[in-house]
Structure formats: C-alpha cells, structure tokens
Amino acid sequence: MLGFIRSSGLTRLAAPASKLALGARAASTVGGALDEAVERLPHKEALRSLKQDLRWSFKELNAIVDEVANGFHSLKFEPGNVLAVWLPNNAESVITQLAAAKAGVTLAVIDPKVSTAEELEYILHDSKASGLLFEPKIAGRNQTEIVQGLFPELATYRENFRLFRPKNFRNLHTVISTGFEPVEGIAQFHQVMVNAPEKHEVETVKQVVNEKTPLAVSYSKVNGQNPKKGEVLTHGDVLKRAAELTKTLSLSANDKILITGEETTLSFAPVAAIEASSMVVLPSAEYDHEAIQAAQKVEPCNIVGSGAANFKRV
C-alpha cells in the first residue's frame, strides 16, 4: 500500500571509492549502518517488493526512511517512545524498522497472527505504546474495524478539534494506517513524511540514540493466552544478530535475500543486508508459495528464508 517512489531503471554502477570498506561496520546504531551503506554504494539495489511494484536503491531507501523518521518526530514521537506495529511482510515494515531506529523510537512488533481486539489491547498496555501503525487487512480480516472498535474516540476526532486521547490508553496519542482510504482520526502512512526538519532536531536525536537504545520487542501469538513478549533488543543487539547472520551466510553485495514471510517474527535479514550491501526481495505481504516461485523467476535470489535468522543459500 506504499505509494512513494517507483524506480525501474536504477543505476547499477558502483559509487566512487568510499572511505568505508565493503562489509566493514563502524556504526553503533541501525540508522548509522544504513547511512554507511549509502556512502559505500548509493545506487546499489537495496529493496524490492514485487507485490507492491517497488524497487529502491540504498540512496532512495534512505531518503524515504529519513522522511518517515522526521514524520514520526512531527507526530510527537520522542526518543524512547514505543510505536506498536501490526504489519505483514511488506515494504512498510522494513521502512518503519529503519525509520524508528533513526528516530530513537522503540518498536513493539506485533505478530501478524494476532487477530483480536483483546490481544491488541494487551500489547498496547503492556508495551505502553504511544502509537499504533497497522495494515488495514491481514489474512482476510478487517483490522481497521478492530482498531476502530478498540478506540471509539476515533469517531469523534474532528468534533474534539482533532485531539485523540483514548481514555483507556493514557500513553497512546497516534494511530496510523498503511491504507490509502481516509478513516476518521487515523493518519495515513504515506503522508507521515517530513523532508525538511529543523537541523537542530535531527542532531538532538542523533546524540541520544546509541547502541544501548532499545529498538524492538516482539509479541507473539499464543492460542488461548495473552501474546508472549520477547526480549527487548537494543541497537547493539540487532547489529550483533545481523552481523552473525551476515557471517553465517557469507553475505556480499552480490547476494539477493528473499524473505518469504513464512515465519512472522522480527527478522534481522534487512539489517544484515544493509551491512553487506545485499538486496532484500519481498515476494508478497503474506506467505504464498506461488508468489515465492514467481519471485524467483522475476528476481532470482540465492538466499531464501524468514523469521529472525532462518535463512539458507539455494
């Protein structure tokens, strides 16, 4: 549902010699790692989402990530705040992970298998989320209706002078959808972009985000019980896990990683790809064997997998 930039003719020439050796990591944050990838090979293909008809170079991806990060700041997300994300295997998920990293925001990553208002309510309370970003439909269910049912205050958003303060969620102030159809009280992801922030604001965030800054915590569906909370991962943790995956797979700039979406936990593959200047390919928002086969014909990948680090060469 993303509608930012479509680039079908990316330059494949390597950038001039960079001060950073390919595969070397000096960054202590995920956002810094992306900046380094741009410095190494700005026009190298970074991400392709076949279902969404999107293809971005590292430079293009970074520009979008920066704008979304700035958008989070304009929506009053401060470093240390939590944004709950209820997204499938799509470009928005990758962008949000990287934008949150640059904004100093911590992600509460919701398993796409979570399907009830009660489960969502538990996660929002447990994580003390300041915001929710969701996909309108996953696995055929209408998630917009679930969100509207959980937040009746959305219906009176304009009557309340565009002020959203749900009485049952004291920390939460913003709800964002990846959909394009306007919904009362819900911001649209493709409009959450600010490309000219005040320089002092950007520098302030850069100074407070470091390797010890929390970046993500996952919530997994457990049938008949509340969702299970995973380990809180810092920027340093994510970079370490990504480096381990890079080493295990011997990733290089020549590799293409197909993320199938079969396992729905937070994946370290996008960050590993950034560190190795590899390309990430998303065949579909939800696991689909036929879409995977079609993707391999259109954009042949030599590494396939899903989940945190369940990937192998093929």
Q: Any overview of this molecule?
A:
There is one protein chain. 33% of the residues lie in helices and 19% in strands. The protein is globular. The strands form 3 sheets. Strands 3, 4, 5, 8, 9, 10, 11 and 12 form an 8-stranded mixed β-sheet that branches. The protein has a 6-stranded mixed β-sheet with strand order 2-1-14-13-15-16, sandwiched between helices. It has a single domain (30-313), classed as ANL, N-terminal domain (Rossmann fold), CATH 3.40.50. It is of the alpha/beta class. It holds the Pfam family AMP-binding. InterPro entries: AMP-dep_synth/lig_dom, ANL_N_sf.
Summarize this structure as a short list of keywords or feature phrases.
8-stranded mixed beta sheet; alpha/beta; 6-stranded mixed beta sheet; single chain; 9 helices; 314 residues; Rossmann fold
Radius of gyration: 19 Å
Q: Give the full name of the CATH homologous superfamily.
A: ANL, N-terminal domain
The description of the largest β-sheet is: 8 strands, mixed
Here the CATH topology equals: Rossmann fold
Q: What is the end-to-end distance? A: 30 Å
State the name of the first-level CATH class: Alpha Beta
The portion of residues forming beta strands comes to: 15-25%
Count of separate structural domains:
1
Query: Mind telling me which CATH architecture this is?
Result: 3-Layer(aba) Sandwich
Low-confidence stretches: 5-19
What is this entry, summarized?
The chain has helices at residues 30-40, 58-74, 91-103, 117-127, 143-150, 199-208, 235-249, 269-276, 289-298, and strands at 45-49, 54-57, 82-86, 106-110, 131-134, 137-138, 141-142, 174-177, 187-188, 214-220, 228-229, 233-234, 256-259, 279-282, 303-306, 310-313. With 314 residues, the protein is an alpha/beta fold.
